[in-house]
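Quick one: structure for this chain?
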Amino acid sequence: MILRCFALVVLLALPSPGRTMRALPWDQEIAERKLAIGQGEKLQDLRNLHPSARSLPVSVNTGGEDRIQLVFKDRRDEEGKLLTRPIRVPGGVKTPLLLLLPDRESESGIRPLVIDDDMANFSWGTIRLINLSKDNLAFRWEKKAKELKPGWDPIDVSPGGSSRNMEVFLYRKEELGTPLYSAVWEHRSDMRQLVFVIPSNDSATGPFEFKFIPETRVEASSE
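Got it. Here's what it folds into:
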């Protein structure tokens, strides 16, 4: 089958001072929450939250003394203050992407997690896969393959060449003769895709599902 993904169109703008952070809510329930990024006296609403696209950027200072916080504008503590959770940006992350993950055990209901979204190592034409299952997997595209270990460390697939449809397969590492999944994915030189591999709750779809976060490049107009 050919997967046709909703693609977020990104307009390339002139660089601005400071570092920017965008957010990605895991599901629609989180996308509908009223959330903001706080740092010092500055509070910026997270806008255009969608589970299949990155939000509009907010400016942050990852090297500043004031810690960055996720502010829950729709929930308060016993003293009537807005709930907050600290956001940790790992060292070496140049372009932080804030994942907003469900956390049913916390009062806020959301766990913030930052991954790197830097264009220098996640460029156009690249598919970045993150395996959120407990299985050691292997991902094959056309005549190439890579091991896909569990955890938040991604693998990058850069097919190169012209835009085209390409056949892909997913295997358990110890069962390379039997694919768990096969499909035709679209490769585009002007698009990068973040793909989460997650365990499936529906036996009809197989043991794994895929959460696609595509982003498409549009050159800024010279006018």
